[in-house]
Amino acid sequence: MDYQPNQIITSRKKDHPNLAIFVFIITIFIVGFFSGSAVSYDLSEKNLLSIINNVTATVTQLSVEKSFSLIFKSFFTHFVYIFIIWFLSLTIIGIILVIFIVFFNGFMYGFVISSFSYQLGLKGFLIGFFYTFPQNIIIVPLLIYFSGRSIVLSLQIFKNFFQTSSRKYLKELINHYYNQLFFAIGVLIIYALIMGIFGKTFINILKSLI
């Protein structure tokens, strides 16, 4: 028995990432953030200062030309993350790996921002915030949204894979998920354009804080 168009639309509504999945992903990110903060807090002052000095030296020596190279590296790194999450959604074990990726990103944000905050107070927090800006307001929401979609797709594939009548629906679902990948790439391109246009401003703000 084939799915009718209205059945597919109804199923899509039911399969849309629900609030529980998004809350779960956000919770994993927050746990990663506080874990990174805890590790930063446990490091000795000498080790922490060494990390901070390396970052501040990089920012101080940063030029507009070098920033374009960093923008490309940042774009490529985030693209790899997004593509891995997209690819992993096609396997049920991908759920575990996607959760790890979200946790790791939260850990790194927590570690960087907390490292500056513990040593330099409010000024350090601002340095950490702008050092990860605008990733923290563009890439993080994208990561959370895309990870939620990935988990939903993984669960649906596992649920319907062995049902012959569901093959058409799975094909529709996967085709829809291709569009999600293109959407994510579009957001990354916008992020790169913002960095390309306003990168000099961000560098100057960082240098003024340091």
Report what the structure shows.
By secondary structure, this protein is mainly alpha-helical. It has one domain (18-209). Helices cover 87% and strands 0% of the residues. The protein has seven helices and no strands. The protein has helices at residues 5-15, 19-42, 45-60, 64-88, 94-131, 135-160, 167-209. Helix 4 (64-88) packs antiparallel against helix 7. The longest helix is centred in the last third of the chain and has 43 residues, at 167-209. It starts with a helix and ends with a helix.
Features:
disordered N terminus, 7 helices
At a glance:
The protein is an all-alpha fold and 210 residues long. It has 7 helices and no strands.
Task: Spell out the blueprint of helices and strands.
Blueprint: H1 5-15, H2 19-42, H3 45-60, H4 64-88, H5 94-131, H6 135-160, H7 167-209
What is the radius of gyration computed over CA atoms, rounded to a whole number of angstroms?
20 Å
Strand content: under 5%
Q: Any idea how many domains? A: 1
What spatial form do the alpha-carbon principal axes imply?
globular
Q: How many helical stretches? A: 7
Mean pLDDT: 77
Topology pattern, helix = H, strand = E: HHHHHHH
Percent range of helical residues: over 70%
